Amino acid sequence: MPDRVLCQSQDLAERGLALRFTLLWGGRERNAFVLRYDGQVYAYINECAHIPIELDFNPGDFFDYSRSWLVCSTHGAYYAPDTGLCLGGPCPGRKLVSLPVREYAGQVCLIEEKTQHE
Ligand code: FES
């Protein structure tokens, strides 16, 4: 199965707004997002590890004011952008569910073959 193109590389600014998308995961449609941090692209299911609700109040706006952490808009859990590990707030030590993405030829792609067995 070919990779799924999510966006063009230039669509993801460093520590800027994320692109939201949906995918089938765990047998149901889930909301997810992809963003750029320290030059790399990362994608996660858009669901807080504290309570399973979306993190972003303003769609696509996941970074905190310092642009260093992904923050949940409900109770303020903050996550490392490169690992999804919660480092503070109500659920430290838990993680966002990461998704396999890669970037090549100017495109950001979801690696579909790795999402089919989840
Ligand atoms: S729902 Fe995200 S910190 Fe509580």
TrEMBL record:
InterPro entries on file: Rieske_2Fe-2S, Rieske_2Fe-2S_sf
Protein name: Nitrite reductase/ring-hydroxylating ferredoxin subunit
MF terms (GO), sorted A to Z: 2 iron, 2 sulfur cluster binding; metal ion binding
Location of the Rieske domain: 4-110
Key words, A-Z: 2Fe-2S, Iron, Iron-sulfur, Metal-binding
Keyword Transport (UniProt): no
Entry's transmembrane regions: none
SUPFAM superfamilies membership: ISP domain (SSF50022)
Pfam family name, one: Rieske
Organism: Iodobacter fluviatilis
